[in-house]
Design brief:
The complex is a heterodimer. By secondary structure, chain A is α/β, with parallel strands linked by helices. Helix content of chain A is 42%, strand content 15%. Chain A has 14 helices and 15 strands. Chain A has an eight-stranded mixed β-sheet with strand order 3-10-9-8-7-4-5-6, sandwiched between helices. In chain A, strand 7, helix 8 and strand 8 form a beta-alpha-beta unit. Chain A is globular and about 70 Å long. Chain B is of the alpha+beta class. Chain B folds into three domains: 79 residues, Rossmann fold (3-Layer(aba) Sandwich); 142 residues, D-amino Acid Aminotransferase, Chain A, domain 1, CATH 3.30.470.20; 69 residues, Dna Ligase, domain 1 (2-Layer Sandwich), CATH 3.30.1490.20. Chain B contains 13 helices and 14 strands. In chain B, the strands form three sheets. In chain B, strands 9, 10, 11, 12, 13 and 14 form a six-stranded antiparallel β-sheet that branches. In chain B, strands 2-1-3-4 form a four-stranded parallel β-sheet, with helices on both faces. In chain B, strand 9 and strand 10 form a beta hairpin. In chain B, helix 1 packs across helix 13. The two termini of chain B are 25 Å apart. Classes of the chains: A alpha/beta, B alpha+beta. At the A-B interface, strand 1, helix 1, helix 13 and helix 14 of A face helix 1, helix 7, helix 8, helix 9 and helix 10 of B. Strand 1 of chain A pairs antiparallel with strand 12 of chain B, so a sheet runs across the interface.
């Protein structure tokens, strides 16, 4: 056969990519999730809101209302900070939650996810320190990682972020640009920051001149107990508040927002315009229409009732099937339960075996910037039915029991033949 | 003409990428092509006697003989190796036995099987495993591809963890001695099988893992491999011999490490090599002056010439 010598460039543009794109790689976990997305697998992995529960007629009537006589606005570009009517509604929504905002100060974004990206873009130079919780929302880690920060981590316990550990970091010389936190019904940990910790955190950060980024997609999904004041309500001066309609209405409309101190707000608008000019006028008006009709609160209440029943199903199933092998958090709201398994089990490595048993979870390591969390997993109860949740957790219990037995069978361990 | 791709294995995505490219290549050659994902449509019922299948399935059912046996039952002709050869090649433990018996160099290994660990106390024999294989070693699931579940082991105490990872993909694993040398892949194609020029693999990270295989630009490839002519020939001949020993046909890819003495060590032979943009056999074919369409055509022609197996 004909031969010629060549170095083959599978990607002729490989040398062109920026340093920040190097981490964007194919991965074993992604390959597994492609299988986990099959309908025969009970997925306790993704955090998909149960949008099917929204009454279709109500949604349709809002969408019709947006288009009837208003195509000139709905199909046009809009202003960078967002549609004024929607910003008014968002200000009302926040006021009901104890956060006071001038509609003018709100910047509408494509989901709160875009706000995370813009915050990274505005605040992080390569090598800058930022503080995240350990574990932290994986989407925030990816958004910030593109700007090449140095991640510092603060652990969580049942009361949320351990502020003393943050103080120790600062005393030790850390100078982070900001602290990122999900205080209510944490993703992935499920825990909620106590009032005491909230007060300590804002006091500490104000004193040190550090911004707090408060990511708040879940607080309105409370199943029990009393709402706690948002960090933004405790200290408007140093907290960037991120809200989202993804969990209380629809992630498909991609509506989130940021409420920031004035200097940062100005830059958020400019960065937003540079990134994508404006959010979709159409979906902003759909969101505005949804919030304009008071019934959205009833729909939200029924969603919360569904999530509460699913959380109960998950906690009961965990008690029934995992009690001897694992511990877990008991969320008072939100989407997630965070499970700790024996330290010698690696949830990333076990995922293929789980999928083989037709159940999926998110391995804990995804939620740490530094490879920790291998003995943790995130289970979400938002999307599968109660029956599926019970069956999924049962399969998980069998898996862990078998894997534990397998590990024990090797626990004598080998010794190095060379030594 | 039906291209089978997708399925339920962890290599589903890779298979779909292979399948789409094969389908496009065959369509370019004037074939009427339909892509069929057995995870979406039941295989039986979607195929009729007289159909011809190009198998672009990767992983378990697609490569271990299961789909092949079913297609034979249906009277459908298909590309690639027959059921027994698939079963033999796909199971690394069986394949290595066969290679060793035929005198083809394959790195030292030992099996660790989950049932033996659970029921036969095999955990106490892990010392023996390392005595036989030595360190550094590589732990692999006995069945599966794309380097999924493969771990390097440098220290004895890391063996159990690596085994847990491999055994999550299959109920048996092998612990294999790591041979240092040049990593190459040899494609073998056609009705009268011919070896394509070896492709040399240089992963930038040092490990040819899943990310290095399927991220554009994560691995440097040299085609043909930078081997002296004698070594390259030895590599091709040995790969061809492995192909014959395992009873393969139409298309396969041997994964080989050429050590400093020029000995080609065969790690495994894949019955359904990847056909993605970053896959090795299409690269080798390209270097031999054979475009993707011609490559697929040649594989298909081999299957069509054979027709469907007749069943008694």
């Amino acid at each position: 056969m004909r031969r010629h010598m060549a170095e083959l460039h599978v990607d002729p543009h490989g040398a062109l990519y920026a340093r920040r794109a190097r981490g964007l790689q194919a991965s074993e976990i992604r390959a597994l999730f492609a299988v986990a997305a099959r309908p025969d697998v009970i997925s306790l992995a993704g955090g998909l809101p149960f949008v099917q529960a929204l009454p279709e007629e109500d949604v349709l009537s809002v969408v019709r209302g947006v288009l009837e006589g208003r195509t000139g606005t709905a199909l046009q570009y809009g202003g960078g900070p967002g549609h004024p009517a929607l910003r008014g509604r968002l200000a009302e929504l926040m006021a009901a939650e104890g956060v006071h905002a001038d509609p003018e100060a709100i910047v509408v974004t494509n989901g709160a996810q875009q706000a995370l990206d813009l915050i990274g873009k505005i605040l992080i130079d390569p090598g800058d320190e930022i503080v995240v919780e350990a574990p932290a929302y994986v989407g925030a880690l990816s958004a910030f990682a593109a700007y090449e920060p140095r991640f510092l981590t603060v652990p969580l316990d049942e009361e949320g972020m351990m502020v003393d550990a943050l103080r120790d970091l600062l005393v030790g010389g850390a100078r982070p640009k900001f602290v990122y936190t999900v205080p209510d019904f944490h993703n992935p940990a499920g825990v909620t920051m106590s009032l005491r910790r909230r007060r300590e955190l804002v006091a500490l950060c104000r004193e040190a001149g550090i911004l707090i980024v408060e990511d708040d997609p879940y607080a309105m999904l409370r199943f029990e107990g009393s709402p706690l004041p948002r960090l933004r309500a405790l200290d408007p001066g140093s907290v960037v508040y991120l809200g989202s309609l993804s969990k209380i209405f629809s992630p498909g409309v991609r509506i989130g927002w940021a409420l920031a101190p004035p200097g940062l707000q100005q830059r958020l608008v400019l960065a937003k315009e540079a990134a994508d000019l404006c959010s979709s006028s159409f979906t902003q008006l759909v969101a505005e229409g949804w919030l304009a009709d008071g019934r959205w609160r009833e729909h939200l209440a029924s969603l919360v009732a569904i999530y509460r029943a699913r959380r109960d199903a998950m906690l009961e199933a965990l008690e029934a099937h995992l009690a001897e092998l694992a511990t877990w958090t008991r969320p008072e709201g939100g989407f997630y339960v965070w499970v700790s398994v024996p330290g010698h089990l690696d949830t990333s490595a076990l995922l293929p075996a789980a999928i083989d048993r037709r159940v999926a979870y998110v391995p804990g390591a995804a939620f740490y910037p530094d490879g920790r969390g291998r003995d943790r997993m995130r289970l979400s109860f938002c999307y599968p039915s109660e029956g599926s949740i019970r069956e999924g957790v049962r399969r998980l219990g069998e898996l862990l029991a078998d894997e534990e037995a397998l590990y024990r069978s090797m626990s004598g361990g080998p010794t190095d033949p060379g030594s | 003409m039906v291209v089978l791709a997708g399925g339920r294995s962890p290599e589903r995505e890779v298979s779909l990428r292979s399948g789409r490219r094969v389908a496009a290549a065959l369509a370019e050659r004037g074939h009427e092509v339909r892509l069929l994902d057995p995870a979406d449509e039941p295989l039986v019922g979607s195929l009729a006697p007289g159909d011809a299948c190009y198998l672009a399935l990767h992983g378990r059912e697609g490569e271990d003989g299961t789909v092949q046996r079913l297609l034979e039952l249906l009277g459908v002709s298909y590309t690639g190796s027959p059921p027994l050869a698939c079963a033999l090649a796909f199971d690394k433990l069986l394949a290595k036995e066969a290679l060793r018996a035929a005198g083809i160099p394959t790195p030292r290994w030992a099996a660790v099987e989950a049932p033996a660990l659970r029921d036969l106390g095999a955990g106490d024999a892990l010392d023996r495993v390392l005595e036989r294989v030595g360190l550094p070693a590589v732990v692999k699931p006995a069945r599966g591809g794309s380097a999924l579940g493969v771990r390097a082991v440098e220290r004895a105490e890391d063996l159990p963890e690596a085994l847990m990872g491999a055994l999550a993909y299959a109920d048996a694993a092998l612990v294999e001695a790591r041979v240092r040398g040049v990593e190459v892949a040899v494609g073998i194609v056609g009705a009268s099988p011919e070896a394509l020029p070896p492709v040399e693999i240089r992963p930038r990270s040092g490990r040819f893992d899943y990310a290095a295989r399927y991220t554009f630009g994560a691995t440097e490839y040299f085609v043909p491999a930078r081997l002296d002519p004698l070594t390259a020939d030895a590599c091709e001949r040995t790969s061809r011999a492995a192909f014959d020993v395992l009873g393969l046909r139409d298309i396969a890819r041997a994964d080989v490490i050429v050590d400093d003495d020029g000995v080609p060590w065969v790690l495994e032979v894949n019955v359904s090599p990847g056909m993605t943009e970053t896959s090795l056999v299409p690269m080798a074919a390209e270097a031999a002056g054979l475009g993707l369409a011609a490559l697929c055509e040649r594989v298909l022609a081999a299957a069509l010439a054979r027709g469907s197996s007749t069943l008694d």
